[in-house]
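Run log, item B.
One chain of 49 residues. Sequence copied directly from the ordering sheet:
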Amino acid sequence: MKETTALNQISKIVDKLDYKSVYIEIQTKDNKYTLEREKERVMGFRGKE
C-alpha cells in the first residue's frame, strides 16, 4: 500500500519536528488515510529515584 508507506515516512519526519499537533489526510478514489497526533507534555515534578 503506497498510502500507508507514505504516512509512515511522513510520521518519521513529523517525529523530528517540534510540533503541538498534526493532522494529515490522504484521500484516494476508494479510501481515506489520516495521521493525527498531539504531542504529549509531561506536567508536574519529578523526584529523585
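Observations after the first pass:
- The helical segments are 2-15.
- The chain has one helix and two strands.
Flagged for discussion on Thursday.
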